[in-house]
Amino acid sequence: MSSYTAQSREPGRAPLPMTDRQDRWWVQPVLIVATLVLFGIYAGFRAFENNFYETRQLIESQPGLQAAPLYLSPFYSPPLHHLIASWPAALSPALFLVIFPLSFRGTCYYCRKAYYRAFFWDPPACAVAEIRDRARMKYSGETTLPFVVNNFHRYALYLILVYVVFHWYHLYEAFHYVDAAGSVKLGYFGLGTLIFGLDAVLLSLYVFSCHSWRHLIGGGANNFSRSPIRLKLWQIVTTLNKRHGLYFWLSLATVGLADIYVRLVASGIIPDLAVRL
Ligand code: FES
Fold this sequence. Notes:
- By secondary structure, the chain is mostly helical.
- It has one domain.
- It is built from twelve helices and five strands.
- It has helices at 27-49, 58-61, 80-83, 93-97, 99-106, 109-118, 133-136, 153-173, 191-207, 211-219, 228-241, 244-266, and strands at 67-69, 176-179, 184-186, 188-190, 274-276.
- The strands form two sheets. A three-stranded antiparallel beta sheet has the order 1-2-3, with no helix packed on it.
- The mean pLDDT is 91.
- Bound molecules: FE2/S2 (inorganic) cluster (FES).
- FE2/S2 (inorganic) cluster (FES) is lined by residues 108-110, 153, 210-212, 244.
């Protein structure tokens, strides 16, 4: 345990070290900051880019191509530009779509712990003192702005369920291709299909291991013996919930990977590695 206390910072007292820990406790918060900042910069760039987010148009832009996959970047899903016929081409749908995953991840119980520690150092790690211990005395929890918005997590969950359905739909689409005549056909398996599969599975594991989802499944049940199916579901979600933090990072990584891959293929930088059945 650290011997550092808020009292030791009082004026006139000699400062004590932040912690007695000898290990590299700072590595994790630094990695979290670096990962989230880099991901945020990349996602912002892609949202504003408003280009290279789907691959079906390759059949027109690359003469001689026999098949183009139907990949859509997860940053541009659900495909508002297809669902709303009058969607203006100059307006990036990702700028609107990003709000909901951001709300969901930003209010996630795991993510809160991660960024409170990594960005605010509040505290940065177990048995390490807070940097701004006196400021913390004024901390009012999640009852006032800005942190009160974290209480909307359950509503963000309802919205993100729509995204999960679309991610599975895009995986289904990834088994299709457009041929030279412009017809959509089933029977395609590319590296992108594999990445989309990973993305759909990991996003589902992340969402269905959510604390709010666990509460939705079993939190309101007063008597589990009368709801055996609900009990079973709650036990499954509870098991998943133990690895919720891991699923947070893995699903973030596969969302980013899926977008990068779609961009590389859609911009013609690399061809899709694929077989047609
Ligand atoms: Fe992390 Fe709900 S608690 S997504």
